[in-house]
Amino acid sequence: MTEEKANKYKLAAEQINAVLDTNISWVGNFANVAAIIQDVFGHWWCGFYLVNNNQLELGPFQGPVACTSIQIGKGVCGTAWAQKRTIIVPDVHQFEGHIACSSASNSEIVVPLFKNEKVIAVLDIDSIHFNQFDEIDKINLETIVQRLSDFYKD
Ligand code: SME
Question: Which pTM does this prediction carry?
Answer without folding.
Answer: 0.95
